[in-house]
Write a structure and sequence with these properties.
This protein is an alpha+beta fold. Helices cover about 30% and strands about 25% of the residues. Helix 1 runs antiparallel to helix 2 and helix 3 packs antiparallel against helix 4. The longest helix is centred in the first third of the chain and has 24 residues. It is globular and about 45 Å long. The model has no long low-confidence stretch (mean pLDDT about 100). Bound molecules: 2-amino-4-trifluoromethylsulfanyl-butyric acid and cobalt (II) ion (CO).
């Protein structure tokens, strides 16, 4: 069942997502060669607690940290570590919080200083695919219109979308129905309605779409070792507009 949200709930989801949005802006400033992902995690947790929110991922099915920090061929769910970032790395930062009972969730891939032209293109196309998907998230369209648009854009640039993980509804739980795949057929899936709140999160590989999970049971890497990028926004479908809740205002 897809839970539709009332305007006052959308407002609460907006507030939670603004904590996430401003945190990602702050972390962007800290991302440079030499910093460890554990340091980023500590900064993030302190920030979230200061906003009277709580990290949403920590403890979720036993996940051990506040952030997911996925470097280079890591796709998602990279556990923060003592390894320092170096120039030329890509780092995807995914963060979720709970504020006043409502969840916020967003992710972004950052270049560490100067990266290769191909890596820059991967980041750009992945972010574009998210916005193109969001542009289809309006009342009357169908869910897989979003999915199809993301896939179409990514594949038109000869990259591939990850199949094993999908976006999701979000509300008083981190993961609600529906699942939001980043691939699919247009004009299929549930009809989009006012009050739906979705976390849309394309994960895009430079090479093949296959991934594997490492023995820590979390860290997900590309099967072929190619680079991967990840962008996520939580959005609310309203009568006359689609509101990007996790864009910093
Ligand atoms: N943005 C991801 C998701 O919504 C992050 C989940 S990490 C976990 O599924 F640790 F919470 F699992
Ligand atoms: Co998510």
């Amino acid at each position: 069942m897809i839970i539709l949200k009332h305007p006052d709930e959308v407002e609460k989801l907006y507030r939670a997502n603004q904590v996430v949005a401003h945190l990602l802006e702050m972390l962007q400033e800290k991302i440079e060669p030499g910093v460890t992902t554990e340091e980023l995690d500590r900064i993030a947790e302190e920030y979230i607690l200061k906003q009277k929110a709580r990290p949403a991922f920590k403890g979720y099915r036993g996940y051990p940290a506040t952030l997911c920090t996925s470097v280079n061929d890591r796709v998602v769910h990279g556990i923060p570590s003592r390894d320092p970032l170096k120039e030329g790395d890509l780092i995807s930062v995914d963060v979720g919080v709970v504020l006043d009972g409502y969840y916020g969730d967003a992710a972004k891939t950052f270049p560490v200083r100067r990266v290769s032209k191909e890596a820059e293109r991967l980041i750009r196309v992945t972010e574009e695919s998210l916005y193109k998907g969001i542009a289809k998230a309006s009342v009357g369209n169908r869910l897989f219109d979003i999915s199809h648009e993301i896939q179409r854009h990514v594949e038109s640039h000869s990259f591939s979308v990850v199949r094993a993980f999908v976006g999701h509804g979000i509300g008083r739980s981190l993961h609600e129905e529906p699942q939001v795949p980043n691939f699919g057929q247009p004009n299929r899936g549930p009809r989009l309605k006012e009050g739906m709140v979705l976390a849309i999160e394309p994960m895009v590989n430079m090479g093949d779409w296959e991934v594997k999970v490492l023995s820590d049971t979390w860290t997900t890497v590309t099967a072929d070792g190619s680079l991967s990028a990840h962008f996520e926004h939580s959005i609310a479908i309203l009568e006359h507009e689609t509101r990007i809740l996790s864009r910093a205002a």
